[in-house]
Specification:
alpha/beta, binds flavin-adenine dinucleotide, eight-stranded mixed β-sheet, 13 helices
Length: 446
């Protein structure tokens, strides 16, 4: 079997689907998207189990770009609700509102005092600000002080990324870590402050179908022949511009767009020069082990999710799918995601992890005695978080220099090897399609 296409896209997550959608909008290029799974969606896809809809942990749409907002709304045809975030942090046996740096109200007095004193020292005894190349640890200490870092910033980020904050860069945090004013930190220590902080104070979520609904709405707009599922890329010969694809055989391409995790793509393609392969070996990631739970009673706190910085809990975050949409669970039931992070490639004993996880969930009253688990299923996300350590940026630069020489696009959260969200995957796909079409690209109005 042998076929030829103008553009071959590896992976039908949001970024791959978005490239195909925008190419069909902008050009007559013959495009093929190949996806190894039997349905499109990738990390933003969902599964159905026993009447529940489970995403790959909470997948909430934070829409800031007008184009993306208009497009997504038109694709979803009313199947979206806007929700005000209800996020909390569990510390010292209590819950306090997210973000921690603005809300210590309700915690033991000694903790509140320590966090405030550390924060006020950063305001009234400022030191020279750390530069752009500061570690996340130094950046956080400079902004929030010792108490907030010791109790939340350091342990939480250590748990999430699996490396000490001193080994993380601070360049990724810009819009993700809220920076309250001193008056807000004081108010949040004295009062139950309900004011929202940060980039995701409100978010959209599908009324029906979980995050897969967005994928399906986008995929249904492609020509039927554009998307092939159950078609894993097995090998790409970059010199000959030929990909070997499960069920399809040889596919010759003019242009290649990768959205698979960058190291995986490099492992099944070649040839690569030695220094580029050395750069690939410096890329690190974390695997997210997500435990999906369906429980036989309604959820009673109304929380969307909570963060767990303390070591006594193996998980870093627990969220409630059925509080995003009641259609995610059967009537009278509720559904949860429990997120545990481990270094990519590490062996995990799921039996031990499950025991510790369920015991932690009982300890913090997410699970109650007598609860019946209608669904209990681990769903790994092998490449969950790209680790922004100090080796990442030079390694990615070396790899992209070579990709540029070969005319290969590598986009999306994992193709570009970065920390980003669904909206950006859609916009990455649009920008990529425009580059592939050149200056002639002219879009239909959103
Ligand atoms: C735990 C977690 C929580 C998140 N929460 C949010 C959130 O609340 N809001 C938000 O906006 N974003 C969130 N994100 C980010 C969001 O999931 C991503 O930005 C987005 O889904 C990335 O899409 P993508 O297409 O770039 O990558 P992917 O969705 O990973 O797509 C890559 C595709 O390539 C396919 N593939 C891999 N290997 C092969 C092969 N050999 N052959 C063929 N196909 C292959 C994969 O199956 C996959 O479908 C979260 C991510 C994680 C990990």
């Amino acid at each position: 079997m042998r076929q030829s296409v103008d553009v071959l896209i590896l992976g039908a997550g949001l970024s791959g689907l978005s490239v195909a959608y925008h190419l069909e909008d902008l050009s007559r290029l013959k495009t093929l998207v190949v996806e190894k799974e039997h349905i499109p969606g990738g990390t933003a896809g969902s599964v159905r189990r026993g009447g529940f809809v489970f995403d790959r942990t909470g997948h909430l749409l934070h829409l800031h770009d007008d184009y993306a907002k208009r497009r997504i709304k038109s694709w979803m045809r009313g199947n979206l609700t806007l929700l005000e975030r209800r996020a909390w942090i569990r510390l010292q046996g209590r819950y306090t509102r997210y973000p921690f740096q603005a809300n210590t109200y309700g915690l033991p007095e000694a903790t509140v005092a320590d966090c405030l004193a550390g924060f006020l020292r950063t305001v009234y005894r400022p030191r020279p600000s750390p530069g752009r190349d500061a570690s996340f640890a130094d950046w956080s200490l400079d902004r929030f002080g010792t108490g907030i870092c010791r109790r939340f910033m350091f342990p939480y980020n250590r748990k999430l990324w699996g490396v000490p904050p001193s080994r993380l860069t601070s360049d990724w945090q810009g819009r993700f870590v809220p920076r309250p004013q001193p008056s807000e930190v004081l108010a949040g220590a004295l009062l139950d402050q309900t004011k929202g902080f940060g980039y995701n104070t409100a978010f959209y979520y599908p009324k029906r179908g979980g995050s897969q609904a967005l994928i399906d709405a986008l995929a249904s707009r492609l020509r039927p022949a554009t998307l092939r599922t159950g078609a894993a890329v097995e090998r790409v010969d970059l010199a000959a511009r030929v990909a070997h694809i499960q069920g399809l055989g040889e596919v010759h391409y003019e242009r290649l767009v990768n959205t698979m995790p960058l190291p995986d793509f490099m492992d099944l393609s070649g040839p690569w020069p030695g220094p580029v392969l050395a750069a690939r070996r410096r890329l690190r990631h974390a695997t997210v082990w997500c435990l999906n739970l369906g429980i036989d009673r309604p959820e009673d706190t109304g929380r969307h999710w909570a963060y767990y910085p303390e070591q006594r809990y193996p998980f870093y975050r627990v969220g409630v799918y059925s509080n995003f949409s009641s259609n995610n669970a059967p009537a009278g039931a509720s559904s949860y995601y429990v997120e545990v992070s481990r270094p990519g490639g590490a062996q995990v004993d799921l039996r031990d992890l499950e025991r510790e996880t369920l015991s932690g969930l009982h300890d913090c009253a997410v699970l109650k005695r007598g609860d019946r688990l209608l669904v209990k299923e681990w769903m790994p996300i092998p490449c969950g978080y790209v680790i922004h350590d100090f080796a990442r940026e030079p390694a990615v630069a070396a790899i992209f220099k070579q990709l540029g020489r070969l005319g290969i696009e590598s986009i999306g959260r994992y193709g570009a090897w970065k920390y980003s969200f669904m909206e950006e995957a859609i916009l990455d796909g649009r920008r990529c399609a425009k580059r592939l079409c050149g200056d002639a690209a002219e879009e239909k109005p959103a």
